[in-house]
C-alpha cells in the first residue's frame, strides 16, 4: 500500500498560523489504497510546538534540539519518512481540500518524478491573489524548468514550497541543499534537470504572505543571489554529467529504501 509523507519543518517564531496548517492536513482525502503520514521536525534550541500535534492523526513529531536551518530540518524529517511520495508543506501554508488527491495520480506515470499544483498567495487580510503559471500544464520535460530560469536571471517558475516528489528521486540527489535560503530551489534545479515532472492545472495550496515568514528575514534574504547562483551552477554541472532519471522499475512504488538501521558512529565509540 503506497504512502504519501508530508514533510514540515516547523519553527516556533514563525508558527503563528500552525493551527490552520494542521486543519488543512486533517481535511485531506486520499485516492483509494493510499495512506498518509505527516513528519514534523521542529527546528530550534528550545522546541515548544509539540503540544500542537497532540491527538492529530498520522503525525510523527520530533524536535532537533538545536538551531539547524530549514534544509537540515527537512532532511532530518526525510530520514524518518516512509512514504513513496514526499509532499512539502511549510508550517504557515495551507493545503486546500483535495490537494493530495489531485497530485498523487500524477505519479501513476512512471516518467513523473515531481509534481506541483498551483498556489494562490494568502495575504494577511485573508484575501487570495492568483498567479498565471509560467509553464504549460501537464508533463514538463527534464531541463525545461531550468531553461526558463536561465532566461529570467536565475528565477524559477515553479514554487518549490508546494512540491510533491518521488521519494527515491529526492533521496538519490541528496535531499535539500545546505544553504541559508533557496535550499529548495537548489534541490529542485538538479532534480528537474534530469527528471520529468508534472505541472498540475489547479490551485491546490495557499502560500501565506506575512511579516514573520523566514523568506522575508533580513538575515538570509540578502544571500539569495549567492544561493540561486549555486543552484544554476548545479544545473550546469548536472548537464555536463549527461545523466537522466528514466522510467525503469526503480521509479515505482514499494521500494523500501527508507528502512535502514544504523548504529553509533565509530568515531564516537570509546577506544578499547
UniProtKB/TrEMBL annotation:
Membrane-spanning ranges: none
Source superkingdom: Bacteria
Annotated ranges, domain Glycosyltransferase 2-like: 5-126
Matching SUPFAM superfamilies: Nucleotide-diphospho-sugar transferases
Record-given protein name: Glycosyltransferase family 2 protein
Amino acid at each position: 500500500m503506497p504512502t504519501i509523507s508530508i514533510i514540515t519543518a516547523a519553527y516556533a517564531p514563525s508558527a503563528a498560523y500552525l493551527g490552520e496548517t494542521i486543519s488543512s492536513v486533517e481535511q485531506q482525502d486520499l485516492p483509494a489504497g493510499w495512506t498518509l503520514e505527516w513528519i514534523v521536525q521542529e527546528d530550534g534550541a528550545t522546541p515548544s510546538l509539540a503540544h500542537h500535534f497532540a491527538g492529530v492523526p498520522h503525525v510523527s513529531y520530533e524536535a532537533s534540539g538545536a538551531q539547524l536551518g530549514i534544509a537540515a530540518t527537512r532532511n532530518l524529517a526525510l530520514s524518518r519518512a516512509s512514504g513513496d511520495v514526499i509532499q512539502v508543506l511549510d508550517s504557515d501554508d495551507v493545503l486546500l481540500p483535495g490537494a493530495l488527491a489531485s497530485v498523487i495520480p500524477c505519479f501513476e506515470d512512471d516518467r513523473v518524478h515531481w509534481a506541483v499544483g498551483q498556489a494562490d498567495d494568502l495575504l494577511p487580510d485573508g484575501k487570495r491573489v492568483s498567479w498565471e503559471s509560467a509553464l504549460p500544464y501537464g508533463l514538463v520535460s527534464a531541463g525545461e524548468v531550468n531553461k526558463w530560469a536561465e532566461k529570467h536571471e536565475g528565477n524559477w517558475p515553479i514554487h518549490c514550497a508546494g512540491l510533491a516528489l518521488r521519494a527515491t528521486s529526492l533521496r538519490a540527489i541528496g535531499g535539500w541543499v545546505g544553504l541559508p535560503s533557496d535550499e529548495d530551489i537548489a534541490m529542485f534545479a538538479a532534480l528537474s534537470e534530469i527528471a520529468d515532472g508534472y505541472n498540475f492545472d489547479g490551485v491546490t495550496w495557499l502560500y501565506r504572505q506575512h511579516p514573520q515568514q523566514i523568506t522575508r528575514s533580513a538575515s538570509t534574504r540578502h544571500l539569495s543571489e549567492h544561493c540561486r547562483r549555486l543552484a544554476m551552477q548545479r544545473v550546469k554541472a548536472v548537464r555536463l554529467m549527461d545523466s537522466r532519471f528514466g522510467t525503469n522499475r526503480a521509479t515505482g512504488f514499494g521500494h523500501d529504501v527508507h528502512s535502514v538501521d544504523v548504529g553509533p558512529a565509530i568515531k564516537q565509540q570509546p577506544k578499547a
